[in-house]
Amino acid sequence: METAEAGDPARGHGGQMMNAFAQSAAASPSAWKIDAVFLFIAVVSLFFFLLVEGMLIYFAIRYRRRKGAEEGATSEVRGNFILEVVWVLVPSLAVLAFFIYGYVVYRDVTTPLPGASDINVVTGQFVYEFKYPDGRAAMNELRVPAGKPVKLIMTSRDVIHGFFIPEYRIKQDVLPGRYTYLHLQPDLEGTFDIYCTQYCGVGHSTMRAKLIVMPPDAYAAWAAQGEGAKAAMSPPEKGKALMEKFGCMGCHSADGTVKVGPSFKGLYGRRVELAQGPAVMADEGYIRESLYDPGAKVAKGFPNVMPTYKGSITDDDVAAIIAHIKTLN
Ligand SMILES: [Cu+2]
Question: Per the structure, how many domains does the chain have?
Answer without folding.
Answer: 3
